[in-house]
Write a structure and sequence with these properties.
Shape of chain A: globular
Order of helices and strands of chain B: EEEEEEEEEEEE
Number of strands of chain B: 12
Number of helices of chain B: 0
Structural class of chain A: mainly beta
Largest sheet of chain B: 6 strands, mixed
Structural class of chain B: mainly beta
Strand content of chain B: over 45%
Oligomer: heterodimer
Helix content of chain B: under 10%
Shape of chain B: globular
Distance between the termini of chain B: 41 Å
Largest interface: A-B, 19 and 18 residues
Order of helices and strands of chain A: EEEEEEEEEEE
Largest sheet of chain A: 7 strands, mixed
Chain lengths: ~120, ~110
């Protein structure tokens, strides 16, 4: 249980275009979802926290106009990288929290490798 | 603010042997949670084990167990009978007051056949 599906797994886009990454909770309702960015050989860097029906909360230094997050339903959150540039190339991971008594934790999507050329 | 420190950038162990990964943390929360996640080459984050701070008993999951020393703010992970499939990055994490995961820098575990 508590499975999160993330698509696409990898994407190549041209500089200046926008890319949307989807994160779906398959078997539970994800009230809160998290978006991370991970650079090679580094830990996860939290970009933003999104709550269903509310505006996302962005971490300091993350451009909210560049990284648009929408969490319109309890099963879907999207991250749109707008006007992408080569420096946006990275590995993006979504996560959702689940709390159900003794079964709780944070489950992760499989990640999206974005390459901007 | 919460912090998590993993002082071992890389560890190696012979297959079938036991290895311990270190993690120390700092938190102002009176009740908190601790996690170990594994990230294999596929980069899929996988929960290894979790611990509630109010529980004195160390959590165990098959070959994985923790040594939770609350006073010392230490949360080490022991992997017994290491297998080739255990090769991965291991991240220790705790939660802040906003229920966001605070991550350590990670430890790369190499399994020698």
């Amino acid at each position: 249980g508590a499975v999160v599906s993330q698509h696409p797994s990898w994407v190549i886009c041209k500089s200046g275009t926008s890319v949307k990454i989807e994160c779906r909770s398959l078997d539970f309702q994800a009230t809160t979802m998290f978006w991370y960015r991970q650079f090679p050989k580094q830990s996860l860097m939290l970009m933003a926290t999104s709550n269903e029906g509310s505006k996302a909360t962005y971490e300091q230094g993350v451009e909210k106009d560049k990284f648009l997050i929408n969490h319109a339903s309890l099963t879907l959150s999207t991250l749109t990288v707008t006007s992408a540039h080569p420096e946006d190339s990275s590995f993006y991971i979504c996560s959702a929290s689940f709390w159900g008594g003794s079964n709780y934790g944070y489950t992760f999507g499989s990640g999206t490798r974005l390459t901007v050329v | 603010a919460q912090t998590v420190t993993q002082s071992q950038p890389e560890m190696s162990v012979q297959e079938a042997e036991t290895v311990t990964l270190s993690c120390t943390y700092d938190t102002s929360e009176s009740d908190y949670y601790l996690f170990w996640y594994k990230q294999p080459p596929s980069r899929q984050m996988i929960l290894v084990i979790r611990q509630e701070a109010y529980k004195q008993q160390n959590a165990t999951e098959n070959r994985f167990s923790v040594n939770f020393q609350k006073a010392a703010k230490s949360f080490s992970l022991k992997i017994s009978d290491s297998q080739l499939g255990d090769a991965a990055m291991y991240f220790c994490a705790t939660l802040n007051s906003n229920y966001q995961l605070i991550w350590g820098a990670g430890t790369k575990l190499i399994i020698k056949p």
